[in-house]
């Protein structure tokens, strides 16, 4: 058995160079074995990438199949409500969530967010149609969905503009959650009572502020920031 003269790694008899440091193997007493199979592959192989179009067709076919089967079952098994609308709505929502981003990797954030919000809105619309609840849909559900979409868009624009640290990301995420819950309670109170009476959302918002303030302090003081990064491997 030979050893590399440069790094000392053990060499196979078929090695013409060191696999670790690529030093040529020259051993007059033991020529390179060119007959025996090498202990490692000589050609680099790669797994063929999955076709995005085929995957999109597969996902679409599965969702359409489930929707059609449930719709047919709902027809032959009469029920008090057209429960198949919920399945169809969920299928449409999942399709809008997964298929367009899969086919269009460079899709702008705004367009992707519009599709996601539209998917949730369509799903809730089908539920409202089945329950005859267009009042709560237009007055409560749709505004909450739009408000949530606006909060996600804010996060996407801020965090997507460049590489952000974990501290910055957590700070923005906690603050946005607090703002979203305050806006949600405002919409609920205005729909039910006609006026905003803040209660539980202010408690959550206060907790979020209490978490954000230390994060901002840590982020602003270099010594604390480095200590957090060192201890938590951030």
UniProtKB/TrEMBL annotation:
<feature type="transmembrane region" description="Helical">
    <location>
        <begin position="83"/>
        <end position="103"/>
    </location>
</feature>
<protein>
    <submittedName>
        <fullName>Zinc ribbon domain-containing protein</fullName>
    </submittedName>
</protein>
<feature type="transmembrane region" description="Helical">
    <location>
        <begin position="110"/>
        <end position="129"/>
    </location>
</feature>
<dbReference type="Pfam" id="PF13240">
    <property type="entry name" value="Zn_Ribbon_1"/>
</dbReference>
<keyword id="KW-0472">Membrane</keyword>
<feature type="transmembrane region" description="Helical">
    <location>
        <begin position="200"/>
        <end position="221"/>
    </location>
</feature>
<dbReference type="InterPro" id="IPR046283">
    <property type="entry name" value="DUF6320"/>
</dbReference>
<keyword id="KW-0812">Transmembrane</keyword>
<feature type="transmembrane region" description="Helical">
    <location>
        <begin position="135"/>
        <end position="159"/>
    </location>
</feature>
<dbReference type="InterPro" id="IPR026870">
    <property type="entry name" value="Zinc_ribbon_dom"/>
</dbReference>
<feature type="transmembrane region" description="Helical">
    <location>
        <begin position="166"/>
        <end position="188"/>
    </location>
</feature>
<feature type="transmembrane region" description="Helical">
    <location>
        <begin position="55"/>
        <end position="77"/>
    </location>
</feature>
<dbReference type="Pfam" id="PF19845">
    <property type="entry name" value="DUF6320"/>
</dbReference>
<feature type="domain" description="Zinc-ribbon">
    <location>
        <begin position="3"/>
        <end position="25"/>
    </location>
</feature>
<keyword id="KW-1133">Transmembrane helix</keyword>
């Amino acid at each position: 058995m030979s050893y590399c003269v440069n790094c000392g790694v053990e060499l196979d008899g078929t090695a013409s160079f060191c696999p670790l440091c690529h030093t040529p193997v020259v051993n007059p007493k033991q020529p390179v074995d060119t007959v025996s199979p090498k202990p490692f592959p000589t050609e680099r192989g790669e797994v063929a990438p999955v076709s995005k179009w085929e995957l999109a067709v597969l996902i679409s076919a599965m969702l359409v199949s489930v929707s059609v089967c449930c719709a047919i079952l709902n027809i032959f098994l009469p029920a008090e409500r057209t429960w198949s609308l919920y399945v169809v709505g969920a299928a449409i929502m999942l399709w809008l969530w997964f298929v367009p981003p899969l086919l269009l990797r460079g899709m702008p954030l705004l367009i992707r967010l519009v599709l996601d919000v539209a998917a949730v809105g369509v799903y809730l619309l089908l539920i409202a149609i089945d329950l005859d609840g267009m009042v709560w849909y237009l007055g409560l559900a749709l505004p909450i969905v739009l408000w949530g979409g606006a909060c996600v868009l804010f996060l996407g624009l801020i965090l997507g503009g460049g590489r952000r640290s974990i501290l910055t990301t957590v700070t923005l995420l906690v603050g946005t959650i607090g703002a979203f819950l305050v806006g949600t309670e405002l919409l609920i109170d205005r729909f039910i009572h006609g006026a905003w009476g803040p209660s539980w959302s202010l408690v959550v918002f206060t907790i979020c502020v209490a978490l954000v303030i230390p994060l901002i302090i840590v982020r602003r003081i270099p010594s604390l920031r480095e200590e957090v990064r060192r201890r938590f491997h951030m």
